């Protein structure tokens, strides 16, 4: 199954949209990440797998391919973790895939499944608003900074499980 979420990357002070596509297919278990990702982004494979398992989800024992599009834009930082994890959970059927296209998701994941703050939230949320997105799910510690932006719903996330429960409609995020 295929699922898509939205993130962004900073190049200088400018935010560039990034579509995070995750496909889970038959084949030997693997976790491939493509799309001109720097080392910190490639390392998200380890953080995402551990965070999912600590949050009580089974990581798919299939071939997982993560595409960060557009492929010609350099992706840097740890802020892609949350978007990759949620897209993986949606592709695995643990989270609803419907409605993900209206949310920007930013945040680093700890190995325990908690969502850690990232840099550059303000320009990324501003750009998401300007692209017409409904809202942004950001680390709780970045929530006050992101909430300065008018015209977009901002939700603060403490854990990966909390974000998935919010998307399922079973829990609220502040």
Features:
four-stranded mixed β-sheet; three-stranded parallel β-sheet; 174 residues; alpha/beta; 9 strands; 6 helices
Low-confidence residue ranges: none
* Spatial shape: globular
Strand percent estimate: 25-35%
Kindly report the oligomeric state of this protein: single chain
Q: How many strand units?
A: 9
| Average pLDDT rating | 96
What is the CA–CA distance across the termini?
A: 30 Å
Helix content, binned percent: 25-40%
Main-sheet strand order equals 1-2-4-3
Could you give a short account of the major beta sheet? Answer: 4 strands, mixed
| Distinct helical segment count | 6
Structure description:
Helix 2 (44-54) crosses helix 3 (81-91). Helix content is 28%, strand content 29%. It is globular and about 45 Å long. The strands form 3 sheets. The protein has a 4-stranded mixed β-sheet with strand order 1-2-4-3. The protein is α/β, with parallel strands linked by helices and 174 residues long.
């Amino acid at each position: 199954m295929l699922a898509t979420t939205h993130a962004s990357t900073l190049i200088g002070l400018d935010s560039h949209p990034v579509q995070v596509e995750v496909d889970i297919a038959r084949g030997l278990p693997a976790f491939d990440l493509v799309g001109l990702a720097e080392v910190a982004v490639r390392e998200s494979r380890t953080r995402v797998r551990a965070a999912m398992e600590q949050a009580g989800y089974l990581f798919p024992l299939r071939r997982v391919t993560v595409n960060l599009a557009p492929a010609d834009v350099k992706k840097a930082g740890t802020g892609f973790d949350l978007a990759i994890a949620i897209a993986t959970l949606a592709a695995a059927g643990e989270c609803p895939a419907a409605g993900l296209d209206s949310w920007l998701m930013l945040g680093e994941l700890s190995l325990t499944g908690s969502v850690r703050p990232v840099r550059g939230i303000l320009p990324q949320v501003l750009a998401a608003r300007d692209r017409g997105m409904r809202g942004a799910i950001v680390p709780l510690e970045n929530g006050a900074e992101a909430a300065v932006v008018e015209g977009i719903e901002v939700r603060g996330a403490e854990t990966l499980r909390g974000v998935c429960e919010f998307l399922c409609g079973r829990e609220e995020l502040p």
